[in-house]
Write a structure and sequence with these properties.
Strand order of the largest sheet: 1-7-6-5-4-3-2
Number of strands: 7
Largest sheet: 7 strands, antiparallel
Distance between the termini: 43 Å
Structural class: alpha+beta
Radius of gyration: 15 Å
Strand content: 35-45%
C-alpha cells in the first residue's frame, strides 16, 4: 500500500471545516479546472454508510467511483472508502485538528494501484497528480473559508 499525506493550516473552526466537507456542493468548488466531477446519485444527508456515486472526467477520460463514508467523528474525522474506483484500494481520511486559534486540515490517502508490478510503474505519476490535486483543494478551501470570516 502507498500513502500520501498533505496538510494546511486554516483560519476557521473545526466545525466549519467539518461542515464544509459534508456539503457536496463544495466538491465541485474544490475540483481543479482541468477536471469535472458529477455526482450520479441523490444524497440528502452525508453520514456513515452513505454511498456516493461519482463520475470524474479528466483529459476527456471518464472514471467512475463508488465511495462509502466509512467513518464520521464530528468534527475531527471523515473517512471515505472506494468500493469501486480505478484503484485496487483507496481510502481517504480527512482529519481536522485544532491548533490554537487555527485548524489543521490533513488529508491522508492510502492506495494501491491495479495491475500488480506493471501498475507500480505509474506510481510517480499518481503521486504527482495527488500532490497537484490536494494542493489545489487546500488552497481553494482556504480561500473559501477565509472569505466567510470576512462576511
Amino acid at each position: 500500500m502507498k500513502r500520501f499525506e498533505k496538510s494546511i493550516i486554516l483560519n476557521c473552526s473545526l466545525q466549519e471545516l467539518f461542515d464544509f466537507h459534508l456539503d457536496l456542493n463544495n466538491l465541485k468548488k474544490i475540483t481543479p479546472s482541468n477536471m469535472k466531477v458529477i455526482l450520479l446519485n441523490e444524497v440528502s444527508k452525508v453520514e456513515t454508510g452513505t454511498i456516493l456515486k461519482i463520475k470524474s472526467i479528466k483529459n476527456f477520460i471518464p472514471t467512475y467511483w463508488e465511495v462509502e463514508i466509512k467513518k464520521m467523528d464530528s468534527p475531527n474525522i471523515l473517512v471515505d472508502y472506494a468500493i469501486k474506483s480505478p484503484f485496487k484500494y483507496w481510502e481517504h481520511s480527512h482529519i481536522f485538528i485544532k491548533r490554537g486559534n487555527q485548524v489543521e486540515l490533513k488529508d491522508v490517502v492510502v492506495y494501491q494501484l491495479p495491475f500488480g508490478k506493471f501498475g507500480k510503474l505509474f506510481d510517480f505519476f499518481i503521486k504527482r497528480e495527488l500532490e497537484n490535486m490536494f494542493e489545489y483543494r487546500h488552497q481553494i478551501t482556504k480561500k473559501i473559508l477565509s472569505s466567510k470570516k470576512q462576511d
